[in-house]
């Protein structure tokens, strides 16, 4: 793999990582409500979901989707349903007071945060389409396995770092204070955004 191809791959992955979507929204809200450490575990789960879709792209899942569109449709319905379920809970509980201990609720366990991040990213089957395009555009046939493993590691690192950064920014004291004062509005905006993303997954 040439240096130019690697840089092109890294640039495309970076674009995919920072594009607004369910993962970024969930990282932001977790940082706000549960702090940076929980946000890091969530980010690791999100990154693991991205690696799963990248592996699926490597093994030609997009070809299976092309041959059996109903499979992609079923995944879209399931993913959209999960996002809409999260959106409903955010909207329903938006008016609930922000119960805190030292201005923070008790965060979920590391495993629960990881699991939430994983399912958040797995709920978006469009990721396999994006990674299929990236691999087809930058990786040539016969690429050594160690190079492919390195590219997967790059995806893992970039997804983890970006979503951890988002969680860190939203965990800052000033950001959290703003959230506490505007909890109902912010939670409903998060919920509405997740619902729109769920609808978009089905519609596109």
Topology summary:
Blueprint: H1 3-18, H2 22-34, H3 36-58, H4 61-67, H5 69-92, H6 110-122, H7 126-138, H8 145-171, H9 173-181, H10 183-203
Helix pairs in contact: 1-7, 1-8, 2-3, 2-8, 3-6, 3-7, 3-8, 4-5, 5-10
Describe the overall structure:
The chain has one domain. Helices cover 81% and strands 0% of the residues. The protein has ten helices and no strands. The two termini are 33 Å apart.
SSE sequence, one letter per element: HHHHHHHHHH
What structural category characterises the helix and strand content?
mainly alpha
Termini Cα gap: 33 Å
How many distinct helices?
Answer: 10
Helical proportion?
A: over 70%
Mean residue pLDDT: 78
- Regions with little confidence, pLDDT below 50 for 5+ residues: 100-104
Q: What percentage of amino acids are in beta strands? A: under 5%
How many E-type strands?
Answer: 0
Q: Roughly how many Å is the radius of gyration?
A: 18 Å
In the residues, how many domains can be counted? Answer: 1
> So what's the oligomer here?
single chain
Shape: globular
User: How many strands, what sense, and barrel or not for the largest sheet?
Assistant: none
